[in-house]
Specification:
heterodimer; A: 145 residues; alpha/beta; Rossmann fold; five-stranded parallel sheet; B: 154 residues; alpha+beta; Chemotaxis protein chec; eight-stranded antiparallel sheet; two-stranded antiparallel ribbon; 3 helices
Chain lengths: 145, 154
């Protein structure tokens, strides 16, 4: 019987969601669409990220960030949400933690809002429909800085 | 209704559906309806208000909605539960957002309402003073009709 050791390890790539010491990066997903939240969570967990929290609007997202802080490395933030929109939540998260790393998730056609978010301190943005490769690239780029 | 309004919806429905379903999508022939028409069972609606006003309806039967939601989630969904509804809503959201970007580039200014989803049997939609253009899109998962009723604000 062949054991695992009989095969050369050609796939030994470290998951992008982990630090060199093997601990996962911790992500908070803020999105009012259950579908989008699930999609982001699936993409991230498949690469070894730890989704430590989810919130369905900006206000809940802000509260969740404060609860998790400092044990959170990155936030994905939808722009259009009820109660508190993503830009206001971003602003308040940055007031609370000026080093917060927030990536905006936006539908196409919200360029003005995306620009405003980037000026407010968002580190990057991703346009829906979400593409796995694009999501992972943008997130690992922000975390590597 | 001016054809400039409908083309962006056709193009973006085609692009978004092809991308999220990873499948070949075909466009059927446009047709016009000025009276009430049946709704197939699952309908996501987005309202428009500004220089132009009206609504866009994404209409499909329930099996199609479930097959589309399953394809988009990468798992089999068998009931129109919250996840399935959120998925169809997001599809409507993405198509509308992309179409609106094109309409904004053409100089039309208006806002969108968040999408709402209706499910049920024997529903119909009526447009009192605005005619609706319907674009059928054929995907392997089934037919989605994009029903656009927009007019310029008086």
């Amino acid at each position: 019987m062949k054991t695992k050791e009989d095969f050369p390890s050609i796939n030994e790539r470290k998951p992008e969601g982990q630090r060199p010491d093997g601990t996962p990066f911790r992500v908070l997903v803020v999105d009012d669409s259950m579908f989008v939240a699930k999609q982001i969570t699936q993409i991230l967990t498949s690469e070894g990220y730890d989704v430590v929290g989810q919130a369905a609007d900006g206000l809940l997202g802000l509260e969740r960030y404060k609860e998790l802080y400092p044990n959170v490395d990155l936030v994905t933030m939808d722009i259009t949400m009820p109660n508190m929109d993503g830009i206001t939540a971003l602003q308040k998260i940055i007031e609370f933690d000026k080093n917060a790393r927030v990536i905006m998730i936006s539908a196409l056609g919200k360029q003005d809002l995306v620009k405003q978010a980037l000026l407010t301190g968002a580190k990057n943005y991703i346009v829906k429909p979400l593409d796995r490769k694009k999501v992972l690239e943008r997130i690992s780029h922000v975390l590597s800085k | 209704m001016r054809v400039e309004y409908i083309n962006p919806f056709v193009e973006s429905a085609f692009n978004v559906m092809r991308e999220v379903l990873q499948a070949d999508v075909k466009r059927g022939d446009l047709y016009l309806k000025s009276t009430s028409m049946p709704v197939m069972g699952v309908a996501a609606i987005v309202g428009l208000a500004g220089d132009v006003e009206g609504r866009v309806l994404f209409d499909m039967d329930k099996p199609t909605a479930l097959r589309i939601a399953s394809a988009m989630n990468g798992e089999e969904l068998t009931t129109m539960d919250d996840l399935a509804k959120a998925t169809i809503t997001e599809l409507a959201n993405m198509i509308t957002a992309q179409a609106v970007t094109k309409l904004h580039e053409l100089g039309f200014r208006f806002d969108l309402t968040p999408p709402a989803i209706f499910t049920g049997d024997n529903m119909e939609v009526s447009n009192q003073d605005v005619e609706a253009l319907i674009v059928p899109m054929e995907a392997p998962q089934g037919k989605v009709e994009i029903n656009v009723a927009i007019r310029e604000r008086a």
